[in-house]
Amino acid sequence: xxxxxxxxxxxxxxxxxxxxxxxxxxxxxxxxxxxxxxxxxxxxxxxxxxxxxxxxxxxxxxxxxxxxxxxxxxxxxxxxxxxxxxxxxxxxxxxxxxxxxxxxxxxxxxxxxxxxxxxxxxxxxxxxxxxxxxxxxxxxxxxxxxxxxxxxxxxxxxxxxxxxxxxxx
Length: 169
Description:
The protein has a six-stranded parallel beta sheet with strand order 2-5-1-6-7-8. A two-stranded antiparallel sheet has the order 3-4. Helix 4 links the parallel strand 7 and strand 8. The protein is about 25% helix and about 25% strand. It is globular, with a radius of gyration of 18 Å. It has helices at about 15-25, 50-55, 85-90, 140-145, 155-165; strands at about 1-5, 30-35, 60-65, 70-75, 95-100, 110-115, 130-135, 150. By secondary structure, the protein is an alpha/beta fold.
């Protein structure tokens, strides 16, 4: 499986870019899965539902199955957060795994950045960032050390760049 990430600060456009990339790349006939790093308090279950009640009762894992999908929820219960590598081992093999977040991990990434956030670029300090996707027209090439900059909405060009980077073009 090939792996490529989308990173950036909060509200930088990561999720929108991920959504567009998944649609674009799957439309090319490739199989894509995603991994999203979330903050510690997230929950995909709803209070009162049977699966929620199972977890609350102490189940380590709850496997929820229907004719449309299945989901496996695992409670860490004081066990350290798994690494990205450990989580990738849980994914059924596909052509490309797009990873949102995990900024400190060492896989190749594109940085999403919106001028509205007022946040500095991460790229100058992180060689795993291979390109920038931004709505800032003033990005100086010297700050990028020769890495390409794309308009944040240039999904086709960004997808093509990623596929070339991972050898799927």
